[in-house]
Amino acid sequence: MKMYVGVTDNNWFHMLAQQGWSEEVNFWKPSGKPFKALAPGDLFLFKLHSPHNFIVGGGFFSRAVSLTTSMAWDTFGLGNGATTYEQMRERVFKYRGGRSAEFDPDPVLTCIMLSEPFYFPEELWIASPSSFKGNIVSGKTYRADDADSQMLYESVTQNLRLLNGKSILATPGSATSSVIEAPRYGQPSLIRPRLGQSGFRVMVTEAYQRQCVITGEKTLPVLEAAHIQPYSKGGAHEVSNGLLLRSDLHRLFDLGYLAVEPTQRQVLVSPQIREKFQNGRHYYALQGQTVAAPLSGFDSPAPGNLEYHLREVYLG
């Protein structure tokens, strides 16, 4: 496990801390540049801007992606640390040096997805390590090979233990529990943080390269992350339980007019489309088409999830 201490907008932190517990947040950066400092499950800590040189909370890194400001708002909403889209845009342009919206009305952001976020009350704020120099404007990575890293990790762990079970943490997730129970810093992180709805949407979108798995459609505003086994029926926010579908296909999939055969991963189109609506020839053309596989490194749809959908949802 590594840690990253990111310089944090004070308004972003206070808004989210007052909001209370949430599954995930978007720690966005205005640059749009790749963020590669952490692996999934590593700790990302919040340090307020000077003169408030304190570590005030954190979360567990899931993934970093590039999204336009509008897409980030549509995906994470209040999890962007702003109360309105207009407020978020104002902050984006402030950090981009006041560049006018005329030239780039929807800037691309670096969206650092953090799961199981936590916020320390002021009495538990941790003084920034001496190695975090005043000229650091973005953040600093900490590994297991120095005293500052060990002291910081122990302070964070102690705070999480104090907060365990209180409303500020609600029910600790798997990644949080792993840190609370960890005997020392530096051991490999084997626990991936749980995803929320927003994280699920982003991860499924990235897994399928921003293309519908059936049609190859690339127009992102009409693509949606579909749960194979419905979330309301116990399906998880996991890539193995997701497919990226064009919005009309998503609707048909959820209603049971489309399915994916679990073994060959081929599209099944229900005859009830024709029977009920006397139409659907465009959809019947998709019958037997093999759905796209996710990128290497992402989980494929779990056969059990596809079987559940075929058995419990599909109108065969």
- Give the topology string: H per helix, E per strand: EHEEEHHEEEHHHEEHEEHHH
Architecture per CATH nomenclature, i.e. the level-2 architecture of the largest domain: Roll
Tell me the total number of β-strands.
11
At the third CATH level, what is the topology name of the largest domain? Archaeosine Trna-guanine Transglycosylase, Chain: A, domain 4
- Total domain modules: 2
Q: Classify the helix fraction into a percent range.
A: 25-40%
Mean pLDDT over the full residue set: 90
Gross geometry: elongated
Please, how many helices?
10
Computed structural class:
alpha+beta
The CATH homologous superfamily name of the largest domain equals Hypothetical protein
What is the highest CATH level, the class of the largest domain? Mainly Beta
Report how far apart the termini are.
48 Å
Biggest pleated-sheet summary: 7 strands, mixed
In percent, how much strand structure appears in the residues?
Answer: 15-25%
Radius of gyration: 22 Å
Q: Which spans have pLDDT < 50 for at least 5 consecutive residues?
A: none
Protein name: HNH endonuclease
Keywords: Endonuclease, Hydrolase, Nuclease
Domain HNH nuclease: 212-261
Organism: Deinococcus radiophilus
What does this molecule look like?
The chain is of the alpha+beta class. The protein folds into two domains: 3-181, Archaeosine Trna-guanine Transglycosylase, Chain: A, domain 4 (Roll); 197-312, no CATH class. The protein contains ten helices and eleven strands. The chain has helices spanning 10-19, 69-76, 85-95, 147-163, 174-181, 197-207, 247-255, 272-277, 281-284, 303-312, and strands at residues 3-8, 24-29, 43-48, 54-68, 108-119, 126-127, 139-142, 223-227, 242-246, 258-260, 267-269. The strands form three sheets. Strands 1, 2, 3, 4, 5, 6 and 7 form a seven-stranded mixed beta sheet that branches. It has a two-stranded antiparallel ribbon with strand order 8-9. Strands 10-11 form a two-stranded antiparallel sheet. The model has no long low-confidence stretch (mean pLDDT 90). One of its GO terms (molecular function) is endonuclease activity. It comes from Deinococcus radiophilus. It holds the Pfam family HNH_2.
